[in-house]
Design brief:
alpha+beta, Nuclear Transport Factor 2, Chain: A, 5-stranded antiparallel β-sheet, 5 helices, about 25% strand
Length: about 150
Amino acid sequence: METGEQKRIKSCRTFVRDFYNWYAARYDQPAGWLELLVTERSVNFSPELLAALRDYAEPPAAAKREISALDFDPILNAQDNADRYVAGDVAQSGDTYEVEVFGITQGKKRGQPDVVAELKFHDGHWIFVNFHYGEWRPDLLSLSKKIREIH
């Protein structure tokens, strides 16, 4: 029998899996990834993360010159997307959960997660609160802060 925590972890992983399936199938639409998220899925993001996505999508010219990390999709952490994405391990940290997201290309799962999505259960549903990119690139909220400082 599953515990409450096991059910929550399972629902978190399922939410991330379903979101990435939806996004990977649509992210290159002419309207653009930000418009897609804002018009169809804004409820899935904290207000702070939506603001960070806007900062990233529309940085001032000075930020584009100074921050070399502004050339990737912030949801996928990629310049070239994988064929599909899968949700991996889920780790709880306080009131947030971090879910590893792996790209799969030509049937092979990458050895390291492409991105680690950070989520919170809020008002009866999951919301993304940050995206972590690994050692060589900051998380999205930190990147947004840097963009605002330059502006």
